[in-house]
Every structure is written in structure tokens, then in C-alpha cells.
Design a protein that fits this description.
The protein is about 40% helix and about 20% strand. About 40% of the residues are buried. The strands form 3 sheets. A 9-stranded mixed beta sheet has the order 8-9-7-6-5-4-3-2-10, sandwiched between helices. A 4-stranded antiparallel beta sheet has the order 1-13-12-11, with no helix packed on it. It is built from 16 helices and 15 strands. The protein is of the alpha/beta class. Pfam families: HemN_C (PF06969), Radical_SAM (PF04055). Probably acts as a heme chaperone, transferring heme to an unknown acceptor. Binds one molecule of heme per monomer, possibly covalently. Binds 1 [4Fe-4S] cluster. The cluster is coordinated with 3 cysteines and an exchangeable S-adenosyl-L-methionine.
């Protein structure tokens, strides 16, 4: 079972890594995640830890945020030292990171380079809402060392964007992708959401066509999840909108996969396609491999050698902790070997390469045999000792993970 650790000391609120978490620190892939919690408006489907300006009080404004994030970055270097891991990926997410000036994002990256050894081929990604960037802004990011841009497109249909409370116009994401390429970015991603109430087959086809008409080498496509407490969930509960239909979601996924694969994109994780191995998102692969990362920012989660912790959620509380010289973490837990093995299965099965059958329990291997018979796991890979999803298995990946790990 997970062990909840008493890592919050009333006098100092410090966070220390146990010896077990330090094992392999220098050799395990390591990444940094930087959470920027600001949004211009709140999208109706989103339950991320984000805030609009009128939801925040003193001490949590955008102008001060880069300095606050840098303060946690400095704390991370102190806790991880003296044998600091090499940073192989940096991912700036949100929220809308590109609501901050490009110079602020550049400052965080520059401090990362000052504090940590950084791989020569480091991948540095920022998420961006299409309406918050232009070629000049993107050029500044490229010059600062960013290597990858992930743009939130969601849909090419105006009425679908309206249901999602997205602000950009339907063609803006594709324009921004062209601007990123013109600025010099080799790696550009577009994010899509399918299954929004009111989305038709033709709407989804048009969204896929728009993606393929843009200069991207990576596409992420996610089924709409109705999260409790969101505006979308309340609208559905009132009967204003229908709940997404599972059969429609499956059809949309199959349509996306066929369209993208026909255009030279291969899936490498259930919801992600890339034109080549170099186009994959290495930061996300680090998560799926259950490697090490430190999450900077309010509500950010971290994982080092089986120790997992998460920060206080509100930006003002986060800033106050760091200003007082305290750790911003809220709580932590130490995973045992069984927990880590379970997570390896849950994450690994979603990957194109799958995972060794030896990682499953005896009961899990029996269920894997049954999954092969049902057409959900590839028989040739199974015979070679691996659990690899078939095309049909990807549609039921979450349910199959539960079967194999129960």
C-alpha cells in the first residue's frame, strides 16, 4: 500500500528525499514540468488547476509568477543535489503559459540551465492557446531554447468551440501552426477533442482535414470527458446538452486513427500520433515510463524514485510558502514495489510497444490470454511475451488495464 509520509514539518515545511528515492537518481531520465495556472477565461469542460484574473488575489499575479516559479526551481536543485540529474525534457503547461511574456518563459528556462545539467538534445515544450501567440512571440521562444509547441485546437467547427467555451476562431490554430513553422519550430503539435455535444461526423472529419492541412508532426486526440463540477457537467445535468455517447466516441477514434495513419502519422500512445520517432513527445514518454520529474507550480505533481508529492493548489498559497522560504508541497506518499509495478502496467499497456507479460500477475496473465482470444491483444506479440494492444484493444484500453491489474 502507499505510505503517506509526514513530510510537512510545522516549523520549516521542508521536503527531503528518502535514500530509497535517491537510488538511480543520476541515471533515471529526468524532466521538469512548469505549471502556469492562468487563463483568460475558463473553458466549460476544463477542471485543471487554472484561474482567471478575477479569481486571484494579491501575491498571485502574472507579473510576479516567473520569479515565484524560479524560487521553486532553485529549491528543487537544493533538494535534488549534490548529484543533480540531467534534465532531458522541460514541459511548460497550464493553464495558458503563453499569457506570460515570452521573456518570462525564457527566464525560467535560463534558470533551469544555470541550476541543472541539461542534455544537449533537451526537448523544451510549451503549450499555447492559438490566440495568445504570433510569429514574433514564437520566434522569441525559439531563440530562448524552446524546441516544441503544442497548440490547443480542439475543433475546426465554430459551434463545437462554442460548446467548449473556447475563444479562438476555427482557423486560428492552423494559422498559429504555420506561424510556429515560419518561426523555425521543427516540432509542432495540435490537440483535438472529439465527442463534444453537437459535433457531427462531418465536423470531426473537417477538424481532421484541417490538422492534415497544417504543418504539424504530432497530433493528440482525446475523447471529451465530462468532469464533475465543470460548467459543461452542469449544462448536461440540466438537460441543455446530451452526454457524449460511447459508441460515437469509438467511431470518432477509429475515424481519427484511419485518417491520421493514412497521412503518415503512426500512433505511439493510445491518444497520440507522430510522423516519426523524433516527433514523439519525449516528456510525455517520460511520464509513461514512470521515470522522474519535478513539477513546478501550484497544484503540480512530482515523482522521484517512487516518492510522489503535490503542491498546494492556490497560486497565492503557493507564492506565500515560497516567499517564506518553505516548501510549497501539500502532501506526499511513498509507493512500494507493488504500487510501482501496478503503475508500470497501467501506463505501459497504452504504448505501442506494450509491456512484457512478466510484469503482470499470474491472474493478469490468464486474463491476457483471454484478451488475445477476444481480439484485444496482439497474438504474435503475446506469443513473444508481450502484451500489445490491437486496434480494437485501443478502443477498450482503460477497461483492459483494469482487467489485467485487478
Amino acid at each position: 500500500m502507499n505510505t503517506v509520509l509526514p513530510l510537512v514539518e510545522p516549523a520549516a515545511r521542508s521536503l527531503e528525499l528518502p535514500d530509497s528515492a535517491r537510488e538511480g537518481l543520476a541515471t533515471t531520465p529526468f524532466g521538469l514540468y512548469v505549471h502556469v495556472p492562468f487563463c483568460a477565461t475558463r473553458c466549460g469542460y476544463c477542471d485543471f488547476n487554472t484561474y482567471t484574473s478575477d479569481e486571484l488575489g494579491p501575491g498571485a499575479n502574472r507579473a510576479e509568477y516567473a520569479g515565484t516559479a524560479i524560487a521553486e526551481l532553485q529549491r528543487a536543485a537544493r533538494v535534488l543535489g549534490p548529484d543533480l540529474p540531467t534534465v532531458s525534457t522541460v514541459f511548460v503547461g497550464g493553464g495558458t503559459p503563453t499569457l506570460l511574456p515570452a521573456a518570462d518563459l525564457a527566464a525560467v528556462l535560463a534558470e533551469t540551465r544555470r541550476l541543472f545539467p541539461v542534455a544537449d538534445d533537451v526537448e523544451v515544450t510549451t503549450e499555447a492557446n492559438p490566440e495568445t501567440v504570433d510569429r514574433g512571440y514564437l520566434t522569441q521562444l525559439l531563440e530562448a531554447g524552446f524546441t516544441r509547441v503544442s497548440l490547443g485546437m480542439q475543433s475546426a467547427a465554430e459551434h463545437v468551440l462554442a460548446v467548449l467555451d473556447r475563444r479562438h476562431t476555427p482557423g486560428r490554430a492552423v494559422e498559429a501552426a504555420h506561424e510556429a513553422r515560419a518561426a523555425g519550430f521543427e516540432h509542432v503539435n495540435l490537440d483535438l477533442i472529439y465527442g463534444t455535444p453537437g459535433e457531427s461526423d462531418a465536423d470531426w472529419a473537417a477538424s481532421l482535414d484541417a490538422v492534415l492541412a497544417s504543418p504539424v508532426d504530432h497530433v493528440s486526440a482525446y475523447a471529451l470527458i465530462v468532469e464533475e463540477g465543470t460548467r459543461l457537467a452542469r449544462r448536461i445535468a440540466r438537460g441543455e446538452l446530451p452526454m457524449p455517447d460511447d459508441d460515437v466516441l469509438a467511431d470518432r477514434y477509429e475515424q481519427a486513427d484511419a485518417t491520421l495513419r493514412g497521412a503518415g502519422f503512426d500512433w505511439y500512445e493510445v491518444s497520440n500520433w507522430a510522423t516519426s520517432d523524433s516527433a514523439r513527445c519525449r516528456h510525455n514518454e517520460l511520464y509513461w515510463a514512470n521515470a522522474n520529474w519535478w513539477g513546478i507550480g501550484p497544484g503540480a505533481h512530482s515523482h522521484i524514485g517512487g516518492l510522489r508529492w503535490w503542491n498546494v493548489k492556490h497560486p497565492a498559497a503557493y507564492a506565500d510558502r515560497l516567499a517564506a522560504g518553505q516548501s510549497p508541497h501539500q502532501d506526499a506518499e511513498l509507493l512500494d514495489d507493488a504500487d510501482r509495478a501496478l503503475e508500470a502496467v497501467m501506463l505501459g499497456l497504452r504504448l505501442r510497444e506494450g509491456l512484457p507479460l512478466a510484469h503482470l500477475s499470474e491472474a493478469g496473465r490468464r486474463r491476457a490470454d483471454d484478451a488475445v482470444a477476444r481480439g484485444l491483444l496482439d497474438p504474435a506479440a503475446h506469443a513473444a511475451g508481450r502484451a500489445v494492444l490491437t486496434d480494437g484493444g485501443r478502443l477498450l484500453a482503460d477497461a483492459l488495464v483494469r482487467e489485467l491489474t485487478d
